[in-house]
Design brief:
Blueprint (H helix, E strand, L loop, with lengths): L33 H24 L10 H13 L27 H14 L1 H14 L4 H16 L6 H19 L34 H32 L4 H21 L5 H15 L2 H33 L8 E13 L5 E8 L8 H5 L18 E3 L5 E2 L3 H8 L4 E4 L6 E4 L9 E2 L5 E2 L1 E4 L5 E15 L11
Amino acid sequence: MEEYTADAFVNREQPIPVIALSGSDSSSSDPKGKRERLKESLSGSKDKLKEKLHDAAGSGSKDYGYSLQDRLFAKLLQQVIPEEEIEELDLPPDVRSSKYINRPSFSLPLMTNNFRRFNARIGVVFVFQNRLERLLTWRTPTHTLSLLAVCTFVCLDPYLLAVIPVAAALLFVMVPAYLARHPPPPVSSSHTTPYSMNGPPLAPPRTIKPAGEMSKDFFRNMRDLQNCMEDFSTIHDAVLRIVTPPTNFSNEPLSSTIFLFLFIATCLLFITSHLLPWPLICLLLCWTVVALGHPSIQQLLLSNHEEHLAPHERTVQSWLDAWISHDIVLDTPPEKREVEVFELQRRKGGLNGEWESWMFSPGPYDPLSPQRISGDRPKGTRFFEDVAPPSGWEWGDKKWVLDLGSREWVEERMVQGVEVEIEGERWVGDLAGGEEAYEMKQIGKGKLKDWEEGGGDSKMGEWRRRRWVRMVRRKVVSDTGSKGD
């Protein structure tokens, strides 16, 4: 195995650390022994050799470098995971449109190949991360002070932001590239040769190459990528654990207080933002963030937190809780609505038969309803006690109430071909007869009605119904009703 890959950006210093936060569950497993790591490296080398042999044997195939198992598994995944189809248009394709960008579907061999290429080139990110960590943790104080000097100039004169990318390209790209072609002579203890900048180049130009897949740099990148994934997961869970409870309205008084403060701050900043000394604010924040990374300051804060800061935190928390309980009032009653159900009865034994209780239905099942026209049976429950409130609601009254305004709901629903009882049990029955039962009846000047008034059941047809109403209120969901995993 190669020790290094020449001209590759790889973090060859300390590994990227894994962030550990107090109170969080660690999902990392214990490190393996040397024997197991050696077995895994040997098995990886064996698999790599097999893939090279497959590449040599199947050079003429379309899936170059993929084994037969990889191809079969990729085909199976393509059948399971549907591809996103682009709508066919009659317009000629425009290569500038994002619709015609090639977006391959999920493929395990393609993902494996992309991961290898990505891992061989991601070293520059880890090098930058490691150097930034060294700056912010005061490993070399002179470097950190130089960073603070640059931040100070930029904060006091924001126009210097335009100089930073140009200066960075000059100092970190051009100068190292020139020194790579014109290296200085080796330092000798006997005599010192002056460095001459004249003459032809002494070395070839430096080119950035990806890390070799059989080198240690490749596995260093995998190590740092593994630790970065752990860092992201830990920070993601920590942020959600801190931010979600006070902002998801599980505690409505607290979330309402935060909403109120944010609204007031938004209005004030909208009016007074141009009056604030932003250069000084940015300078103060920059120096504070960098100073908090100093080990001595961190140790001082940790040692004095319980003694000086914790009592003030508890005082502020108690004051905020008292203010919320006194000024934030969220005792509005839950929403109430009226629901209805129709009691259906069917005549048994012809026009002169007795009425038989059929069911309780959400609809009136009138002669011209879609269910009636299509020949479907009414839907509902046979017993009054089985009628349930709508989803998310609960009963607001103890019992159902008969709707005495049968004429009103018939007119509102424009029910035709029925006879309405104005008094008594308020039944609304079908009119007996043929098509003449559904003709509009004249009532007064220019007014039509599609129902008749009556008090008996001599003209009623097969079905009759009456309306029951009851109040429901919105069900209150407890704070622990829904919790994320």
